[in-house]
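User: Hey, my collaborator sent me this sequence without any context and asked if I could get a structure. I don't really work with proteins. Can you help?
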Amino acid sequence: MTRMRTAWASARSPALWLVGAAALFVFTWPLAARVPTAGLDNSWVAGLGMALRDHLDYGREVIFTYGPWGFVEHLALYDTEAYRLALGYHLVLRGAEALLVWIAVSRTWGRGWGFLVAALTLWATFLVEPRAVVSLVIAILIVTSAPRSLAWWIPAVLGLWSGFELLGKASTGAQVLLVLAAALALGPQPRRWRTLGIFAAGAAGGLLVSWLALGQALGAIPVFVRGSLEIIVGYTPAMSLDDPALRWEYFAALGLAVAAGLGVRAATAQRIERGGTGLAVVSALFFFFTFKEGFVRHDAGHDILFFAAVIALLAVLPWGAAHRAQALLALMLGVFVFLGLGNTDLAALVNPRDSLRNLRQDLRLAYRAGERNALVEQSRATMIAGYGLKPATLAALQGHTVHVLPWEIGVAWAYRLQWRPLPVFQDYSVYTSWLDATNAGRLGASDGPERILQAPPEAIDGRLPAWEPPQQNVTLLCRGRRIAAQAAWRVLAIGADRCGPPRRLSTVHTTWGGPVAVPAVGPRQLLTMRVSGVDPSGLERLRALVWQPAPRYAELDGHPYRLITATAGDGLLLRAPASIDPPGPFHLAPAPSVLRFLRAHQTGPQSGGDITVEFDVRDVR
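Assistant: No problem. I've predicted the 3D structure and written it out in structure-token form, which is a compact way to encode the shape of the chain:
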């Protein structure tokens, strides 16, 4: 049998490939400039833009899901420089995606039909990060159809790109790095260790050059790496969800995994020289990362990220002309499931006219300052009207550095406040004890914010606002002084600590579901608890690695609240005197009488476990 014809050999008309790829790029452009507006997600996008504008150091001043280059992934108008850089990034990356996907699918469908399959693939993957798809296609080309000897500059360039992507979204940057490294390690090329060494050197160089290009401090790199790892490790147990109405999607995912396995087998059957193992590993890595993306937080919104990504995988696998029928059935299955999600408008998705209009508008906004500024100022006025800060509130903020709680950062952008956030600048993202301690330590520090602009405490996913996050909230109660207030906002100044050192009041040992009486304290005392023994263990830790752990809850007087186990030992607030925690919309302490700890997905009554609760008390001056 003859070896599969390579993508390089099939590209005999470079001009035609480029013209076709340009058409795919233009008519499947998925992005429209994000206009500034209020809301949780829009606020962290605003934060990324303001961090670039204000030259904040990542690691020391900012720790988030996205790194210093994360703003390029969001075509948002919060900052002109950030918008232009983001547009340039997407023009290059989406162009490469269009060309590479067409090349890959043409090996099965030919150039003509491949053009249509590539267009459908690009339309379906409009929400999937293009760097994930680009790295997948490059990896598949390397392990199945690359020349036996790669030029040294290819792993060098791929390494440079991987290093850059590590400073975007940490989890997806890790995906790009691992998928490409696996392809270089398992491809048919000789001298793999030399190739991997060049790739690793390129990745280190790409990370360093990208870091310095934004003026980041070299000394902050270790803290940035630590913070990124904390975010990645803490995300799954803290943010996992599983909508019972979507359980059928697990069976759909299993079916698509089988389809992808058939694609790998079809390609291997055509005697890909030493590329079969590499193709299987690369495909499995891509499937695993995208499964985590869609099923750790399994709701209507994240599920589409997985199923769209799998369509891309099924399309670019080298099924070969002899297996077109299997390829067609696999793609039809993927598209059928994708459309069955119910959160995709097919007519709006496959709309070349809208794609062209969006691209033209995005380009105009990059160089037409008048049009861009008018749109930005209109958005700013709308946001200001919605936020409604009163003159006295604004006066308390002017001339001071400001952090916003719990997450509505857009208010700092709208009013042009001097934003100087706590490192993890949205409370729900403080997933671990280290992150909690880092934020709490910045309150009252010389480089910390001078004012806190706080909306009423709020939490996501049924969590308790008092524990979002625990150590930071206790520090804020003890050090914050209210200097201005209105119905929906208040301003705090950070002063001396009014709370004494914690003293152990009592220790209680309990099990899952066992009642724990909360001790009473004096009217000028603050009560917290430290909980241990609630973390996943044994096989559940493995389940958390590949999917998600069973959620934990703390039931306070019969009301269950989601418990973040990584911060359960940080001192969870229970009672506080009215002198530091007054009644009203900003009240925090839940003051329960009885509490229990519950583990979801446990069959039968709650039982087992060895949970320790340590109650600490502090005197409040």
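In plain terms: Residues 185 and 316 are 20 Å apart (CA to CA). You can pass these tokens on to your collaborator as they are.
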